[in-house]
Amino acid sequence: MTDRKNDGLTLLGNKGTHYIFDYDPKLLETFQNVHPDRDYFVKFNFPEFTSLCPITHQPDFATLHISYVPGERMVESKSLKLYLFSFRNHGDFHEDCINKIADDLIKLMDPKYLEVWGKFLPRGGISIDPYVNYGKKGTPWEAVAFERLSKHDLYPEHIDNR
């Protein structure tokens, strides 16, 4: 087993957690992937995502699904949780939040592949489910990203007001 020590992590195990209520990508931390020679998916499900509508300032609630194939670095889950929490008072449209999360995670980790899917609760009688993905250029994952996006949601689920 590889001894990770703390790998520079400051939030994991910190009993004095400070919650930030405004969008802050500096909250994200990474650690070394000890299996960089193997491709595998890591998936996070975050059923308590909240942001604000930039026009009405009403809260929007969603479940986020974040999946990625790590390269050399991986996102630490507590830092991800605090980062996602920081959207609580952030005003952006659903699509913008999902793209911003993807951009921040790509910049942070340089993953081989990443996808972020937001399943927002209906407001005004309509739900919005933005999906974004990324495959590292020049790798087989670039083609996987195109394929998954082109076939995304071919068989949408039955929606009964979630």
Automatic annotation (TrEMBL):
Q: Which InterPro entries match?
A: GTP-CH-I_C/QueF, NADPH_dep_7-cyano-7-deazaG_red, QueF, QueF_type1
The record's catalysed reaction(s) read: 7-aminomethyl-7-carbaguanine + 2 NADP(+) = 7-cyano-7-carbaguanine + 2 NADPH + 3 H(+)
Tell me where on the tree of life, at the top rank, the source sits.
Bacteria
Active-site residue numbers = 53, 60
The record lists substrate as bound by: 75-77, 94-95
Quote the EC number: 1.7.1.13
Q: Is the Repeat keyword given for this protein?
A: no
Q: Which Gene3D superfamilies match?
A: 3.30.1130.10
Q: Which UniProt keywords apply?
A: Cytoplasm, NADP, Oxidoreductase, Queuosine biosynthesis
What the entry lists under Pfam families is as follows: QueF
Pathway the protein acts in: tRNA modification; tRNA-queuosine biosynthesis
* Cellular location(s): Cytoplasm
The protein's job, in short, is: Catalyzes the NADPH-dependent reduction of 7-cyano-7-deazaguanine (preQ0) to 7-aminomethyl-7-deazaguanine (preQ1).
Q: Which NCBIfam families does the record cross-reference, listed alphabetically?
A: QueF-II
Q: Please state which protein family the record places this protein in.
A: Belongs to the GTP cyclohydrolase I family. QueF type 1 subfamily.
Q: What is this protein called?
A: NADPH-dependent 7-cyano-7-deazaguanine reductase
- Source species of the chain: Sporolactobacillus kofuensis
Please state the gene responsible for encoding this protein.
Answer: queF
